[in-house]
Design a protein that fits this description.
Beta-Lactamase, 615 residues, 17 helices, Helix Hairpins, five-stranded antiparallel β-sheet, alpha+beta, 5 domains
Length: 615
């Protein structure tokens, strides 16, 4: 940089006259460069400071270097500019010259104030930051840490933490080595994922952003960075991923069970017919009975899978969970045995819920049996209820939870606990740690809770026990229908009605036709919705329509609506391998019912009798 361009005022005095002044000097005193050259130095000295200036000049003759704060007179003759003057006496040929530099003290003070202000703000930011800020040596010695870091790692004070070696807070010492290598290689890292541990051993998922500090020779002297604790967001992310996986498994399960139920309908139905045609002493009878029982077990299995997939058709009523739990508790004590104490801590003011009592009972039983198996030496099982509410602000990171009021049913045991490495898999279908377990118990629990509009979570610690928390949406209705059981009388009508059956699976269609005709019904059949509508248009008079929900082109619901235009008094049974809870919502009448596949001839005939006897 040239002398005239440097930001500090520079001047040269020769025989009391200014020989040279650079741009910065001219700017300070308000003169142009051509004006300043040759000017007497006394022209820049305020009259009241002349005596002091002469003393400085005499002092400079005795001492080659002089530094002082001194006011200079601006060109306008009024302003005094406080400056720091540094003067050196030198020889230039035979002449003595004075070389000096000038800086405005006001400017210096402003700069100093700005620096102090910046340092103050930085210190406040460092102290008050919610993220951990630190400086460490390459060897792992902690050189500086802010209060957030002291709190994150669980130390009583900063002084205690500074005595520790950060290497001890790595779960795996190799992680520290790899981190150091990556940091040295790149010079800086952003959001570097690490698993660290606090003073008490608590594991933390963290993101580290750091850079290398080097000396003038390029040697690393320290690492400086921030640590962000993402343990909770990480857990939420994993739970969301698990939730999405379970949803995908549910959809896959639903598709498989639909096709499987069609096959079971044919197997179960025809086996039952053959059993009726075969005498108990016949050699084939026992084989047919085994086929029928195996098919029933397969049917039960598909129903359990449908429950997991949240697709099983359920009948919901309004009831108080305390009523149900008290009822279950009567025989639950016998299931648990003498070694396990049952505690019921039920909030008397708990709200009602709208769900299937049978399914909520199954949830409690499944969890209780799991708890019993986890306490072979005895222990205690506690079932409690309470009202809770989730606000919008509390569930921002929990997309599977809807805001609102819930009833919390908590099932806790003092058993052996669930290992951390498998706790995320316990709700998966067919996953089991028991030798003879089906792996469907907890997946059914999960499916029932989700189908009831709720959610479930689990906490467990080895050697201490497990707690399941079930959240079911609270109902605004206060009536408890469990204490008012309903009953109705049935009137049976003689068979002989005209029935239209629409089913695209030829085997299922043939089975239903055989069952109905052998029972005295007049049967019309169609394999598509269009064929069924055409038959209804021609026949007009139909007592009953049995139609599959899933049909090519026009589905069962749309087909039924069209047929009812020609035969308004026709009652309808919808059948499907897919469950449905929407029949009453769509048609709003008891003349329309749903029958889940697979079903036996007796189940089908009973459903028809029930429907045709309604007036």
């Amino acid at each position: 940089m040239k002398l005239k361009e440097i930001p500090i005022g520079v001047f040269i005095i020769k025989k009391d006259r200014i020989e040279y002044g650079n741009r910065s000097f001219c700017k300070i005193v308000g003169y142009k460069e051509e004006e300043i050259k040759g000017m007497k130095i006394h022209n820049l000295i305020p009259p009241e400071e002349m005596e002091r200036f002469n003393e400085i000049s005499d002092m400079l003759k005795k001492k080659q270097t002089f530094v002082s704060e001194f006011p200079l007179l601006h060109k306008d003759g009024k302003r005094r500019i406080n400056v720091n003057i540094t003067k050196d006496l030198a020889l230039y040929g035979r002449d003595k010259i004075c070389i000096g530099t000038v800086q405005e003290t006001d400017l210096i003070e402003n700069v100093v104030d700005e620096i102090l202000s910046f340092l103050g703000k930085f210190y406040s930011f460092f102290e008050e930051s919610e993220e951990t800020m630190y400086i460490t040596s390459p060897e792992g010695k902690l050189l500086e840490i802010n209060p957030a870091g002291v709190k994150l790692f669980g130390y009583e004070s900063k002084e205690n933490f500074l005595k520790a070696n950060v290497t001890n807070h790595y779960v795996n010492k190799k992680d520290r080595i790899d981190f150091q290598k990556d940091l040295e290689k790149a010079g800086s890292v952003k959001d570097y994922e690490l698993t660290l541990k606090a003073k008490n051993g608590r594991l933390m998922n963290v993101l580290v952003t750091a850079n290398v500090i080097k000396d003038e020779e390029g040697k690393t002297v320290a690492y400086r960075g921030t640590i962000r604790d993402v343990t909770e967001p990480k857990k939420i992310e994993e739970r969301l991923r698990e939730f999405q996986k379970m949803e995908a498994l549910g959809r896959l399960t639903q598709g498989i069970t639909h096709d499987f139920n069609n096959l079971l309908t044919v197997i179960l139905g025809n086996t039952e017919i053959l059993l009726r045609m075969t005498k108990p002493g016949d050699p084939s009878y026992e084989r047919l009975r085994l086929i029928f029982e195996a098919s029933e077990k397969a049917s039960s299995l598909t129903n359990q899978l449908l429950t997991f997939s949240k697709s099983k058709s359920i009948s919901s009523i309004n009831f108080n969970p305390n009523t149900l739990i008290n009822k279950v508790g009567i025989f639950l004590s016998r299931i648990l045995g003498e070694k396990i104490k049952l505690n019921l801590l039920l909030n008397p003011d708990v709200a009602c819920i709208n769900a299937s009592p049978d399914q909520i009972e199954q949830v409690i039983l499944n969890l209780a049996i799991n708890s019993r198996d986890a306490m072979p030496e005895g222990g205690s099982l506690t079932i409690s209820t309470e009202n809770v509410e989730f606000k919008e602000s509390e569930i921002k990171l929990k997309p599977w939870v809807k805001p609102g009021k819930y009833v919390l049913i908590k099932v806790s045991d003092t058993g052996k606990g669930i290992p951390e490495e498998i706790i995320d898999r316990i709700f998966e279908p067919f996953f089991s740690t028991k030798e003879k377990g089906s792996g469907l118990g907890l997946s059914i629990v999960y499916g029932i809770v989700r189908q009831s509009g709720g959610h479930i979570n689990v906490e467990s610690k080895l050697g201490e026990g497990t707690t399941f928390r079930i959240f079911i949406p609270a109902s605004e209705e206060k009536t408890d229908y469990l204490i008012k059981p309903e009953s109705r009388e049935k009137m049976f009508k003689k068979r002989g009605a005209r029935i239209l059956v629409i089913e695209d699976d030829p085997n299922v269609l043939e089975f239903i036709k055989d069952v109905l005709e052998s029972s005295g019904y007049e049967v019309l059949t169609a394999s598509t919705g269009e064929e069924g509508i055409e038959i209804a248009r021609e026949e007009r008079e139909l007592d009953l329509l049995i139609t599959d929900m899933v049909l090519p082109k026009i589905n069962g619901l749309e087909t039924a609506k069209e047929i009812l235009k020609y035969s308004p008094k026709t009652k309808v049974i919808f059948i499907s391998g897919y469950p449905s809870n929407k029949i009453n919502e769509i048609f709003g009448s008891k003349n329309f019912v749903f029958l889940q596949k697979p079903f036996t001839p007796s189940t089908l005939l009973e459903k028809i009798d029930d429907l045709l006897t309604l007036i």
